[in-house]
From TrEMBL:
It comes from Sporomusa silvacetica DSM 10669. It comes from the Bacteria. SUPFAM superfamilies: ATPase domain of HSP90 chaperone/DNA topoisomerase II/histidine kinase (SSF55874), RmlC-like cupins (SSF51182). This is Histidine kinase. InterPro entries: Bact_2-comp_sensor_kinase (IPR050640), Cupin_2 (IPR013096), HATPase_C_sf (IPR036890), PocR_dom (IPR018771), RmlC-like_jellyroll (IPR014710), RmlC_Cupin_sf (IPR011051), Sig_transdc_His_kin_internal (IPR010559).
């Protein structure tokens, strides 16, 4: 009967038949429409109901159906509304209603079916500023829960996989034949990423070689396929003649049994679910984009807040340094003028050492005025380091020797005021304290690639391990070790970070020969 009906349809409507389905109550043939520019076209089919045939009630989810009588009379029910569809009569089945058909006559009757989707247009996709992974977004918006509720609403199996083929939903929900196909890696649908390499860029209804039908809809963000949402995984035929034998461990005689375990899917139902899935996919993409934008904005706010905290901490540190410096000056201009007067008088009285010592202290004060929170060149800092060292060596004669070896190519590197001075002071006041042998202090500067390196090395008592560990932890913004108080190392670190951000290194360790090695690395 199928061949005669198909030929009659082609002859009557002058179109090709794109697909057909056979049921216990009759058969249905879908017609090829001329394509147009619209994204969604109605589907048109001719339904033939066998004598005494009766279609079970089914719900029209997501589509309306216009029916036109062609031959004979069928009785339709739309919920409780009875429709006597005779030749030439037009009626409709509303969206969401329960529909069933009965042919009480002794001959086949037929009617034309036109199905329109009632799914609204999807949202427009947005753009986000970075590449994302589907698994990352799935956790962010609880995607698996959304997919599970969608599966319940359409009463079909739904899958979600990323572009690498990793399942983000439970693949045990798939039919037995699909699970075996995936395990044996012998399928030709997108669930088998090892055998199917080209990504699907558009939604499609796919019929696999084993006779399983499913809708596969890609997630595309920023022109990149992130994964696929699949739905259906049932059969659209009452026979297995066009399907290959079942895969894997299934014996040939059990292939048909495995195939018929699949849920039966009506083509109109699958088409309407495809439209729904298209909307769901587009809406989920929009939800993903909005969620990622919100996450980017949240991350930006957090980073901005952290940066403000760092700025406030640095400002507080600079204020403390400036206050201590001002407190130590005791009206520096008055003291500077007084020291010059003392030095001139000592020179007139023939006290050369006293005059030199006083001039050194005066120069040190003059150079330091107004530079508590500024940058100076290494060359400039060395000028008052020499005065400082002269004062200390006069104060502690024969206590230590000093060698300064600075490569001229790094003299123009700028550093925060009193950076090297603090390291030298720590060596003299802490490193050489309670040490019997003569102290040796080396200030070494050299070029290393695109960086300048400054090292202050002494042969003193060696730095405590607690301070070494504390300096190593300084990049932690919340770290405030009490062991660094009073030796200026945290202040040096914060000021270097303010000017150079992450492009510097500050380390301090016990040297291999004994004593302490402090090291600063700065970009040229």
């Amino acid at each position: 009967m199928t061949g005669d009906i198909a030929n009659k349809i082609k002859e009557t409507f002058q179109v090709n038949i794109v697909s057909d389905q056979q049921f216990g109550w009759g058969e249905q043939h879908w017609l090829q429409l001329e394509p147009d520019k619209s994204k969604t076209q109605p589907t048109v089919s001719v339904s033939t109901v066998y004598p005494g045939g009766s279609q079970s009630p089914h719900v029209h989810s997501g589509y309306i159906e216009i029916i036109i009588g062609l031959d004979g009379m069928t009785t339709h029910w739309c919920d409780d509304r009875e429709i006597k569809l005779e030749e030439g009569k037009i009626s409709y089945i509303s969206e969401g209603s329960k529909h069933r058909i009965v042919n009480n006559s002794s001959k086949p009757i037929s009617f034309l079916s036109i199905v329109y989707s009632t799914i609204p247009k999807p949202l427009e996709e947005g753009i986000i500023g970075k590449d994302i992974e589907l698994s990352e977004v799935a956790k962010l918006i609880n995607l698996d829960s959304i997919v599970e509720k969608f599966a319940q609403s359409v009463q079909m199996t739904v899958t979600l996989i990323d572009v690498a083929g990793n399942f983000l939903t439970d693949k045990n929900n798939l039919p037995e034949i699909c699970q075996c196909c995936i395990n044996e890696q012998c399928g030709n649908c997108i669930l088998n990423t090892t055998t199917v390499t080209p990504p699907y860029l558009e939604q499609k209804i796919f019929h696999c070689k084993f006779g399983v039908s499913a809708i596969q809809s890609p997630f595309i963000i920023n022109d990149k396929v992130l994964g696929y949402l699949g739905c259906g995984y049932g059969r659209m035929s009452t026979n297995i003649t066009q399907a290959e034998p079942a895969p894997g461990n299934f014996a040939a005689d059990s292939a048909q049994e495995v195939y018929f375990k699949l849920n039966f899917i009506h083509r109109n139902h699958l088409n309407s679910v495809a439209e729904t899935l298209s909307l769901v996919s587009a809406s989920l993409v929009q939800l993903m984009v909005n969620s990622m934008k919100e996450k980017e904005l949240s991350d930006y706010r957090i980073n901005l807040s952290q940066e403000r905290e760092k700025q406030a901490l640095l400002h507080h540190s600079l204020s403390q340094a400036r206050l201590k410096f001002l407190e130590s000056q005791v009206n520096p201009h008055f003291l500077f003028n007084t020291l010059n007067t003392i030095a001139q008088q000592a020179e007139m009285d023939g006290a050369g050492t006293l005059a030199s010592l006083t001039y050194s202290l005066s120069n040190l004060l003059r150079l330091s005025l107004g530079k508590a929170d500024s940058l100076v060149t290494i060359e400039e800092e060395l000028s008052y380091i020499k005065d400082y060292l002269f004062i200390q060596q006069t104060r502690f004669p024969d206590k230590f020797t000093v060698a300064i070896d600075i490569d001229p190519t790094i003299l123009e590197i700028k550093i925060p005021f009193m950076t090297i001075m603090v390291l030298i002071e720590n060596s003299i006041l802490h490193g050489f304290k309670n040490v019997r042998q003569e102290g040796h202090l080396l200030v070494h500067g050299y070029k290393q690639g695109n960086y300048g390196v400054i090292e202050v090395c002494d042969n003193g008592c060696g730095i405590p391990d607690a301070i070494v560990a504390a300096v190593r932890e300084l990049p932690n913004a919340d770290y405030d070790p009490p062991s660094l108080k009073g030796i200026g190392l945290k202040n040096i670190f914060l000021r270097l970070k303010h000017y150079y951000e992450e492009k510097f290194e500050l380390t301090i360790n016990r040297s291999s020969a004994g004593g302490t090695l402090a090291r600063i690395v700065l970009p040229l």
